[in-house]
Amino acid sequence: MASQRLLEERKLFRKNRPYGFVGKPLTREDGSIDLTRWECRIPGPEKTAWEGGCYPLSMAFPDSYPDNPPECKFPAGFFHPNVYPSGMVCLSLLDNDTELGGQWAPSINIVQIVQGIQELLKSPNVYSPAQAPACELLKKDPAAYERRVKEQAKKYPPPEDEE
């Protein structure tokens, strides 16, 4: 079921890809497509400290997708209050434990996931931190936090080729 759904998602993403976003399945060494592993790029939201960056994100879909959400990761060490030091994204949209506030639903698609993560960049949840240093800096010195985010944006320039 996961493969069929991901094949449809790939078609949907190609057709309705939001401007500046990139998302595609990995190609295996033998040339075949691995629909369960995607490499994405998420543009920094305009008029925020994130603007100008295009942030790499990997998505790993379990065999139980869409009943269970994908694992979404930025590079290790990514600076954001809701990203673990490993790069793992902490977002209720990607959590299926409803008792703990998880909002995952099988109807959520890849476009909604990447847009939700883009929204998280500009609107971090300081009540559910995954990375204490980023969260503390945001709370104690928002201007220093923004400077740090702008520096990080320089590490991830938009790709030359958007496809």
UniProtKB/TrEMBL annotation:
Residues 1-158 form the UBC core domain. The keyword Metal-binding does not apply. GO terms for molecular function: ATP binding; SUMO conjugating enzyme activity. One of its GO terms (cellular component) is nucleus. Keywords: ATP-binding, Nucleotide-binding, Transferase, Ubl conjugation pathway. GO terms for biological process: protein sumoylation. The keyword Coiled coil does not apply. Belongs to the ubiquitin-conjugating enzyme family. This is UBC core domain-containing protein. It comes from Chlamydomonas reinhardtii.
